[in-house]
Amino acid sequence: MTRKQTKKHIISKRILILPLIILFIFLCGGFLFSQNIAEAKKKTKSSATKWQKMLERNGVDRALWQKYLPKVTRKEYNKVSKALKKMGSVLGGSGSLGPEMKVGLFKLNTSNRKTITVNNTTGFRIKDKSGNVLREILGGQNAAVKADRSDKNFSIRGADGNFSLLTSESYLLLEPVGTDGIFEIDDCEVNTSADKKSNPYGCYKSGSVKYDKFRGKLELSFNKDGEPWVINVLPMEQYTWGTGEIGDSKTEYYKLFSIVFRTYGYYHNEKRTKHEGENFALTDTSSDQIYKGYKIEERFPKFKEAAQDTRGKIVTYKGKTALTPYCSFTNGKTRDYPGDNYPYLKSVKDHKEGTKKDLEPGEGGNHMYGLSAHGAVGWIGDGKSADWVLKYYYTGVKIEGAY
Fold first, then answer.
1. Which of 16, 258, 297, 311 has the most other CB atoms within 10 Å of its CB?
2. 66 DSSP 8-state letter
């Protein structure tokens, strides 16, 4: 091969190799590019916005907001809300009633009756953890269910008065047939408000009134320590309707406390840290906030109306649900909450209506953090709005719709 031919041969090789190199780079680059896209998608998927989380938490069909991904904004959230209204629905996990709430009512163990006897005017179904219907109880008929702590199972009383195994699992759900079915606990041991906190068995009693009726569902389940509990499962709004007992008052005061009660429940429903190892977010006692169920609606219908007017509204701080502690009185001013995690719980001067000058912190349950209930009465009496009072006692907060 001549020198000229050799040179041509080398050039030809180079010409052939060059496309191969380009093809290799393209393929590798494409692979890396694909990997980067996959990683970006994964990253986008994991960094859901606050508004996307609210849609997911409230069980809104993804098809309604898929087109807004990878980033759902507040504006787009509002578009989904409007779309739902046109469809005859309202944004929220249970229609317009918000996410599900679980309230621990009382225990079923050897310190108390092991049996709970309930009825429901619309009838109800008893289901296991998989949703299988174990029994159907007609409206107005009783069903007596007993917890066996040793084997962590439940039995039901038959017509002969004897109990037979209902499920070998540690969980039951009593679900009304109608959406508005109300459960009545026939053998609910009753306590006054004063001793319910120290004796958390059974229901409340105030004078001749027994608070033994509850909306929603009843869950019977064993917690991690093996204690069987009766738990009320219902939407956040219905929980708010049955919370507290603040007597007859002005509509604006009712609105204020409906927001406070809802926020407190919403906060702990999100965190789920106050009752670790339990199957509920809060108890019904003053250790959390007092909840008495359906008879609060019956006795104080104006409170329910005010709660419906504020549906979904909660107190927030920098986009997150705030903790909203409250007490009856202060010694003239509220206290700074310890630590740096609650910058909105700052000391403020209380209204004279809420002031007891010689009151010591903790006396009569008055921790003096957050809102002063009697102080709020004074401000409302002065013509202040519910929002104004909330923003006065909780520094730098907003009142926003959670659903």
1. 258
2. G
Structure tokens at 55: 């849609």
The whole-number pLDDT of residue 23 equals: 46
pLDDT-based confidence at residue 44 (cuts at 50, 70, 90): very low
User: What confidence score (pLDDT) does residue 40 get?
Assistant: 45
Q: Where are the beta strands (DSSP E) in 202-260?
A: 203-206, 209-211, 213-214, 217-222, 228-235
Specify whether the CB–CB gap between 319 and 326 falls below 8 A. Answer: no
| pLDDT tens-digit map of 52-99 | 888 876 667 677 788 888 889 999 888 887 777 655 555 654 447 889
Q: Is the pLDDT of residue 224 over 80?
A: yes
Both tokens assigned to 31: 């692979």
What one-character DSSP code corresponds to residue 345? -
Question: How many CA atoms are closer than 13 Å to the CA of 184, on its beta-carbon side?
Answer: 12
Say which amino acid occupies 168.
S
- Segment 355-372 shows an average pLDDT of 95
Contacts 24+ apart (CB under 8 A), 353-362: 353/377, 353/378, 353/381, 354/328, 354/329, 354/330, 354/378, 355/329, 355/330, 355/331, 356/329, 356/330, 356/331, 357/331, 357/332, 358/331, 359/329, 359/330, 359/331, 360/331, 361/331, 361/335
Q: Nearest CA to 216 among 330, 316, 100, 113?
A: 100
Supply the angle between the helices 74-86 and 50-57 in degrees, to the nearest 10.
30
Pairing of strands 228-235, 217-222: antiparallel
Q: Which helix (H) or strand (E) segment is 16 a member of?
A: helix 3-46
DSSP string, 88-123: T--SSTTTTS-SEEEEEEEE-STTS-SEEEEEETT-
Pairing of strands 203-206, 209-211: antiparallel
Query: What pLDDT is stored for residue 14 in this prediction?
Result: 53
Q: Which residues are bridge partners to 102 per DSSP?
A: 233
Distance from C-alpha of 197 to C-alpha of 272, rounded to nearest angstrom: 20
Instruction: Name the pTM for this structure.
Output: 0.77
